[in-house]
């Protein structure tokens, strides 16, 4: 049995605990939270496991093989570092750390200690994203043109990080997973509508070498919850609506054909033909993404195999987040990125 320890029983922690408790071949051994109130709630929900306010109890427990970190982002680095030094594998909630420097140190430490370091980019485990990836790899969409995403909600407002650090990791991780290459630049614009100076509305724009672009609208101050993404190709286009209970993916056989005549007046005669075909909504298995991720992580710990989202990929997201913040601080100035050309991939 793979023993699991969870540190952080706030917003995301209960979901993580519930899913890891149900993974065959694993056991939720202990839950840690500094808040006495949250410890009391955890004790009522998971009376079979140890609940403690001392993180050291998890580190010293030989029955715990892996620790899941679901605490505020500013604590991720130190909690994950201590877990790795204690010989535990680690799954860290997004974003992996607060800074790129912390992320680099954590990735290096995990490699030195031969510990698994995985990042909780949950949407990569959804059946919808897996299907989009399959269609792209099969060439069904043709040449990728752009990805446009909207992620809005009324809250949650975080005092320690802005809407980019909260929501953009989802969008960035999806894009990097789908296209398997990194952007060359980022621009970000945002605004704060409260008195705490933390941006609650932002637009992030990524540019890639081949004119492919990705654009994200991120908002904590919206009347409705929207999670919608358009993936546009030269042959077909996909609308991914995560709020739909069924038909989360709609594949449109729509696009344009550009006619470029030759001759002296070619520029004036160039025209665009519109193509409008059928729409297909493929059947998707209705599995909770976090349940799939939990089973995958336990398998990696047991078999010592690389995770789908290793620390190196979390670090790539961090580099883009930091560059986006620099752009935001400089009124949307374009910030070049110097990152590896391709994502690391699980074996």
Structure description:
The chain is α/β, with parallel strands linked by helices. The chain has two domains: 2-122 and 290-316, Rossmann fold; 124-286 and 318-336, Dihydrodipicolinate Reductase, domain 2 (2-Layer Sandwich), CATH 3.30.360. It contains ten helices and 15 strands. The chain has helices at 13-21, 36-45, 55-59, 76-85, 100-113, 127-137, 163-179, 266-269, 289-303, 311-329, and strands at residues 2-7, 26-32, 50-52, 66-69, 89-93, 117-120, 144-154, 185-191, 201-207, 213-219, 221-233, 237-241, 249-259, 271-280, 335-336. The strands form two sheets. The chain has a nine-stranded mixed beta sheet with strand order 14-13-12-11-7-10-9-8-15. A six-stranded parallel beta sheet has the order 3-2-1-4-5-6, with helices on both faces. A hairpin with a 3-residue loop joins strand 11 (221-233) and strand 12 (237-241). Helix 1 (13-21) crosses helix 9 and helix 7 crosses helix 10 (311-329). Mean pLDDT is 93; it is low at 341-347.
